[in-house]
Specification:
The protein has 411 residues and is α+β, with helices and mostly antiparallel strands. It is 26% helix and 27% strand. The protein has helices at 10-13, 46-53, 74-77, 79-90, 105-111, 140-146, 166-170, 202-211, 271-286, 318-322, 324-328, 347-353, 355-359, 390-402; strands at 20-22, 64-68, 97-100, 117-119, 161-164, 182-186, 196-199, 217-221, 228-236, 242-252, 258-264, 291-299, 305-311, 334-344, 363-370, 377-387, 405-407. The protein starts with 9 loop residues before the first helix and ends with a strand. Keywords: ATP-binding, Nucleotide-binding.
Amino acid sequence: MLERYTGCTVSEAYATGSNGIHMPRYPYYAAYDLPGECHYYYRRSVQYLTCQTARFLLIGGEATTLVKDGVVDFSQDLTPWWHGFFQEHFGKQMGEIVRYAGGHSYLEYLGNHPQSKLVVPHPYPADQIASDHYYLENPELIVQLNDKGRMADISSHCIPYEVYDAATFAGKTWREHWELPFVIKLAAPSGGGDGVAICQTEADVQAAQERFGGHRVKVEHFIGGYLANYNLNLHVDRDGTIRFIGGSEQRISASARYEGNFIDLCWHPSPELEAIAVEIARNAAHLGWFGVCGLDVIKAADGKLYFIDPNFRLNGSTPFHFIREHFLTHFQRPNLETGYFCYLGNPLAFLETFRPEIEKKILMPVGLYYDPSYDQKTRVYLAQVTENDVDAHVSLRDTLAQRGLLPGIHL
C-alpha cells in the first residue's frame, strides 16, 4: 500500500520553496485576446477560463500564484474573513496572489522574475518563456505526458484508440475503421470535459468534426455503463518516490462534462487500481517528471480497469486532499461533494449568508470568482461535507439551493 503524502502546498509539492511561481490551469498564450489566433480553450469564455484558476488559491504556500483579474484574493478582498476563519486555518497554505489583466501583463511579471521556477500545466511558446524558467528541466515533458494521443506510452491499460492529424480527421477515410458508438477526444491537453465528444450518431460525428476542426484527435472505443470513474492524485518526488495524495469518484454529466468529485478522505484504492496508477507515475518519473498528477481510471461493467485521462498537474480535487487534516478535526470519516456553485450576490454576501455552515466546516470554499462588469454572481469552488452519508449530501445540497447556492458554474 502506498504511503500517504502529507504535503499541503504547491511549494512543497513541486519543491520550489519561496522561489516558485504557480499558474494554476490553462495555457496563457500572449495572443489569447486575439480571436482566431488562440488555443482551443479560448473558444470558451474568458470568464470560464479565469474562474478555473480560482480553485487553487488556498494551496500556494510559499509559491506566488498568478491569476487573472476577477479571481478573489482572500487576503485582500475578504479582509474580515481573512483575519478570522481563513487565516486561522489556511494562512500557511496561501502565498502571495498576483492578478493581471490582458494577455501580456503576466509575461511582464515573469520577465521581472527570471530566477523563479514556474509551475504550469502547459509550457508557453519558447519565444515568450525560456526553457530554464520552469521547475522541470524539460518543460515539453508536460505536453508529452498530458497528450491523450500518447497515453499508451505510459500505460498498458488504455482503451484501444487511434490518433489522427487534423487533415485526416477532416476527411472521411478514418470512419471506415470505426463503428458507432465511439468517443472523440482532443489529443492535446484538455480538462473538464472540454475536449470530449461521445458519438452515438452520424450527427454527433459531424458536430465533433466541426468542434475539433483543425486539431489532432484520438478516437477510442466507447465504454458504456461503467461502474466507477476514479481520479487518483499521486505525488512523485525528485528522486522518483511515489506517494498517495488521495482519490475520488468523479461527477460526470451525460455529455462527459466534469462536474466535481465525490471524496471519501479515508478511502484507499484497491491493489489493482493502485498498481495501474503506480505504473503510470513510475513511467513518468523515468522520463524526468515530478510533481502532482491526477490519473483518471474507469471500472467497466465487467470489472476491467481502463486508464482514460492523464492530468499531470494539480486537479480539481487536489485542494481538498491537501487540507485533509482540516476536515478530520470535525468529522470521523468526512465525505465531500465538490464542484462549482453559483450565488447571486458578491463574495462577502455569499460568505455571510452561509457563515454557520462555513464555520462548522459543512461548506468549504477554496476559490472565488466575481466580475461585476460581467454579472452580479459569485462563482465558488467548494466542498459540501457530511459524515459518510449520501442521503445527507442530497439533503444539504437541496437546502443550500433553496437559499440561493446553485450547483454549476453557470457561464
